[in-house]
Write a structure and sequence with these properties.
By secondary structure, the protein is an alpha/beta fold. It contains seven helices and five strands, in the order E-H-E-H-H-E-H-E-H-H-E-H. Helices cover about 50% and strands about 15% of the residues. A five-stranded parallel sheet has the order 2-3-1-4-5.
Length: about 170
């Protein structure tokens, strides 16, 4: 299984994703590590990425997911996947599960301001909310609100995944 933790920038995808992977004993991947240099440079300049910019990146992530599933390597992938068509590009089969993280704009903005060493320009946050598409009914995406205790949230997500697997 590959679990894709998705949401806007600074919602906590990497933090929760790492904790979830640790809780499950799985490997963690951050989609930011697969961004082409041109995309990173564009975001550093405060320019939002277009669908065309994201296309090759999403294809790389899709290939990663296919390799992980073929190798039966359970993993967690933190990825913005803001639009349904992006999630569809990553959905290679029923073994890919999506978990959406949510928080208030003010909390996300505060987390973004406190971030250090990341290429994402805080000016881009509004474009993230503009691109964000609620999961459609056919997507089977579970939504979790950011909690004060990230470890507790990771455990809740892990329990939810385990319960779904046993149904």
């Amino acid at each position: 299984m590959v679990v894709v933790i998705w949401g806007v920038a600074a919602v906590g995808k990497t933090t929760i994703g790492k904790l979830l992977a640790q809780e499950l004993g799985w490997r963690f991947y951050d989609a930011d590590d697969f961004q082409p240099a041109a995309n990173i440079e564009k975001m550093q300049r405060g320019e939002p990425l277009t669908d065309e910019d994201r296309g090759p990146w999403l294809e790389t992530l899709r290939q990663l997911i296919e390799r992980l599933l073929a190798a039966k390597e359970n993993s967690v992938l933190a990825c913005s996947a803001l639009k349904k068509k992006y999630r569809d590009a990553l959905r290679t089969g029923p073994e890919v599960k999506f978990v959406s993280l949510r928080a208030s704009r003010s909390r996300i903005a505060a987390q973004l301001r406190s971030r250090r060493g990341h290429f994402f320009d805080p000016k881009l946050l509004e474009s993230q909310f503009g691109d964000f598409e609620e999961p459609a009914g056919d997507e089977d995406s579970v939504v979790f609100k950011l909690a004060e205790n990230p470890n507790q949230l990771a455990k809740q997500i892990a329990n939810s995944l385990r319960e779904a697997a046993n149904e």
